[in-house]
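Re: beginner question about structure tokens

> Can someone show what the tokenized structure looks like for a real chain? I only ever see the sequence side.

Sure, here's an example I had lying around. Input first:
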Amino acid sequence: MAPDGSDWRDRSTPSTPPGRGQPVLSRGPFRGRFYPRGRSGPPGPRGHGHPSVPRIPGKNILEGLYPSTIQVIEKPAEVPAGDDIVIGDVQYITSYSWAEGDEPTILVPGSPRLWKNDLPFPFRAPRDSGIVFVYQNGHRCPSYPLLPLFVAADTMESDGHSPTTWSSVDIVTDRNNLRKLWSFVENPEPSDFRIDLELVGPWTVLMQRWEERTAEEVEMRGFGGYGDSFEQTCTTTAPGCERGIFAGHHRVISYDMSGLKLVVRCEVDACFAPEEASAEVGDQSQNNASSPDDDLTNALKSLSISSSSNTPASATTLQKQGLTVVKAGSIIPQSSLIKVKSRSEQSMTSLRWYEIYPQLLLGQTFHSMIGVHRSGEFSKVRHVELDSPELEDVARSAQSGLRKLRWLLEEIQHAAMERGQDAKLSLVCRQGMLVLMKRTSSASLLPVDVLKRFEV
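And the corresponding structure tokens:
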């Protein structure tokens, strides 16, 4: 868990590390998680007979910014109480999975990995290690990290999916940005962060995620948990998405936040296969006796490559805006999405839901599957739903942060509107102070032809 309360895997992180003495490859079960030798990035993970991994150079948070501050955005002490802030009218826009390819490649609509209904408890998972993606969109599409969102949306629309009225949107953002802003308004000592901004219509603001590093080594963070190893063990690749990269599925939704219309992109860990989605899934433990392979085989039979009308999608490969687009995967119901986490037996007794809840709420992820382990030996999974009685107090307490977040988003929107579409802005939080600064480059966050959709 990062100091700001965020899951640093918001994110893309590695799966089970390679065995002792194995080279780190771009193929096999670790696709997309480790840097391949002979391409970009450093050699394999530290330890297990590998050379030591050099520190990946990071960017300065003020890089590409003019030194002067345009505006200080004060942290709200308290937003006046009123009606609860409600996230409603949740609509699926598009989804995609990053895939193996010589060029940046996405599968559209792609699919999250599928949850294995019954797991062979107890089982042991190795500790996570090696090089991981912190921000996969920024790593694979560095010039325009937001571009895959729009390419995937255009691909879905061309196949008959309902179009989005982009000019009606207030804010387009990654969930990660919302979580950082939530942490700023609620945390007395928030971590430093930066978000690049651009007004692209009369009122639509693009919020582009910024990271010091788009890839990181687990060991640099001073810990190595079991989350990725557990996630890979308890999930499997969806049909048609065999080329997909582990932890590479992204979903784009729109919703109304009490009058503010947001388009939000977030990574999705897993989902229930269609016939499982409506089934009641309780805690899974070592008392389960049925075979996970049998249950999963039955579930896979109902999952097909589909378009928005659930008819088979053609295996078409397209080139759009420098991205290779492969039509593959399935549109998964929002109610089937899963956040996968792991916790030790000791930490489960003091699980900090106030840190986890914003991630689930802002991504509208209904299910949490939490693997419980002792030194990497997993004994059970706790299944918690977003609207469960267990989280009622958490949801009630979260209203304070949600109210402040909505207020802050409106302040950011107004600040961008005051300065117009020619201003290329950045929000920078340093030492607990949030300021608005101007970028030295006049480049937009998206290609010109993509920006046209925001015109009124």
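Each token stands for a local structural state, so reading them left to right follows the chain. The chain is about 20% helix and 30% strand.
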